Here is the input.
Amino acid sequence: MNKEFTFLGNTMENVAMIYGIFLIVWGIGVTILSDSQSITSLIPAIFGLPILISSFIAKKLPNKKKVLMHIVVLIGMITVSYTHLRAHETLRYRGCRG
Here is the structure.
């Protein structure tokens, strides 16, 4: 009996791979569509690449899955923390209280 956690029928490795691909496509797409000359538009892709790589390796090396998926979670937490910090700074800069 397999007790592996799934989300909408997908293993967490698959979910992380989909999310990594989404972040990479989002970063590259925004950069191309906005004709951005700034590296900051690629930040989602920069975070998505290690998520994609770690989850892919976790799928190929099941004995290292626990460590690699914890790395994915750590990268995700850094991403969320960075986003929250930047949003807070932007709101403070614009004179909003929060």
About this structure: The chain has three helices and two strands. The radius of gyration is 16 Å.
